Every structure is written in structure tokens, then in C-alpha cells.
Automatic annotation (TrEMBL):
Name of the protein: Response regulator receiver modulated diguanylate cyclase
Domain HTH araC/xylS-type positions: 151-250
Organism: Chitinophaga rupis
4-aspartylphosphate: residues bearing it: D52
PANTHER family per the UniProt record, alphabetical: HYBRID SIGNAL TRANSDUCTION HISTIDINE KINASE C (PTHR43547:SF2), TWO-COMPONENT HISTIDINE KINASE (PTHR43547)
Length: 254
């Protein structure tokens, strides 16, 4: 999947320059002010934001503050670009939640490395969560807001885990979000669809039950909402790279 970057700058030359530098590696969305940026965020799955600080209307500091305080977007890493070469400006950028702060004029190589590192770290966390039977969903949180969102989502799925029909509509109703907004949030945070997140939560609960050695695999598959033991086994293998019996055999014995 090609990751998408939203670039916000009122200078058309900067937008054109960054399009040339980043266009071959990422899917780009361009905005000349905060209002246009908001429209893009409402429609697209964005993996990273690059924003100038000095803009008419909503400046970069205020935009960063708004994004980082909104549950729908607070997980998106933000790089602030500025010509303000002062310690105070740097501190303010970090205080509003910026993940990186780059001074103009900047080298395109420095920007590319900074982007690559931020996205790579996010990818590693997502992959670790998806492939680790006991890793808590909150490992993917990048803020207290994200942590609360993921905890509420996880608790709902686990409370209703025996129901094989949990779907995005049920999740959206519980989270007081539209289907589209919830899908974007979950996909951007975890690289998983809501259905895949439900499946992984079922399988993590199954891994916990397997480790207790109190139930058969058939019983466990029913307890976590699978109508078919064969489907349960296939999905377990898909995400954790081992079958339920192989997982059981790998557990330490007292």
C-alpha cells in the first residue's frame, strides 16, 4: 500500500517542490490552507501531515493543536515546517503535539528520512500488534485520546465476542461515529479493516483461552464467535503464523 501524505502550505512553489520530491514514493494530497486540509482529512485516509507554520487563517500551530485534540485524526504524525529559527517556536511546535519540526530552508534528504522514520515506526507497531497473540490493542495508541478510543473499542468487541455477527455498524453505533469515519480511523491506526480488527481480537482472546488449557479447540472457537472451527484455525494460522495446536505446543510448561 502506498502511504498518503497531506501537505499544507500557502506557498505554491513549496507545494510544487514537495510534490517533485515526494510524488514518486507517496500518494500526495495538497492544501493551501487549513480549511482545505480539513476537507481532505474528512474524505481520505491520511498517514502523515506536513504543514507550514506561517499561513493565513489557521496557522500551523493551531492546525496541529486541532488535529491532535480530535479523536478522528489525533493518530496522524505531523511534521511542521518553519522559517522561525527560534528556540521558543521549536518548543511551541512540540507543545501542540508535532512529531517533528524542520526549519526552512531544509534539505529534501532530511525531510525524506524524517518521513520514512515516522512511517516505519508506525508500520512496525501495527505489524507487531497483528502478529503477536498477547499484544494489547493499546500498543498502537500515539496519544491518550487514541488509548481511550482503542480501549473502548476493544472492550466492546470482547464483551460481545461470542456474537459471530459483530460488524462495523455495531462498532460505529457504540463509538458514536459514522461508518466511514470509524473505518478511516481504524484503518489508519492499525492498517486493518474493522472486520480484520474484530477477527484479531477474537483470535487474541482464543490464544488466552488456549494458554489456560481448560477447553477444547472446538469450544474455544465457539467462545470467541466462530461458527466454524476450520475457519478459526485458518485465521489463527493467517495472523499468528502457526496453527492453534502449534501455538499450544509452543507454550512453556510448568
Amino acid at each position: 500500500m502506498t502511504e498518503s501524505i497531506l501537505i499544507i502550505d500557502d506557498n505554491e512553489d513549496i507545494l510544487e517542490f514537495l510534490s517533485v520530491v515526494l510524488g514518486d514514493s507517496y500518494q500526495l494530497h495538497l492544501a493551501t490552507n487549513g480549511e482545505i486540509a480539513q476537507t481532505v482529512l474528512d474524505k481520505e485516509i491520511i498517514h502523515l501531515i506536513i504543514s507550514d507554520i506561517m499561513m493565513p487563517g489557521i496557522d500551523g500551530f493551531e492546525l496541529c493543536r486541532l488535529i491532535k485534540s480530535d479523536v478522528e485524526y489525533c493518530h496522524i504524525p505531523i511534521i511542521l515546517l518553519t522559517s522561525k529559527n527560534t528556540y521558543k517556536a521549536h518548543i511551541e511546535g512540540l507543545e501542540v503535539g508535532a512529531d517533528a519540526y524542520i526549519q526552512k530552508p531544509f534539505s529534501s534528504e532530511l525531510l525524506q528520512v524524517q518521513i520514512a522514520n515516522l512511517l516505519k515506526n508506525r508500520r512496525k507497531i501495527k505489524e507487531h500488534f497483528a502478529s503477536s497473540p498477547f499484544e494489547d490493542v493499546r500498543v498502537m495508541a500515539h496519544s491518550k485520546t487514541d488509548e481511550a478510543f482503542l480501549k473502548k473499542l476493544d472492550e466492546y468487541i470482547r464483551t460481545n465476542i461470542k456474537d459471530p455477527n459483530i460488524d462495523i455498524d455495531m462498532l460505529a453505533g457504540h463509538m458514536f461515529m459514522s461508518r466511514t469515519t470509524l473505518y478511516r480511523k481504524i484503518k489508519s491506526l492499525s492498517s486493518l479493516s474493522p472486520k480484520e480488527l474484530i477477527d484479531i481480537t477474537r483470535l487474541k482472546q482464543a490464544a488466552s483461552l488456549i494458554s489456560r488449557n481448560e477447553f477444547s479447540f472446538y469450544e474455544i472457537s465457539k467462545m470467541v464467535g466462530y461458527s466454524s472451527q476450520s475457519l478459526f484455525s485458518r485465521n489463527f494460522q493467517k495472523y499468528f503464523k502457526m496453527s492453534p495446536i502449534e501455538y499450544f505446543d509452543s507454550l512453556p510448561r510448568e
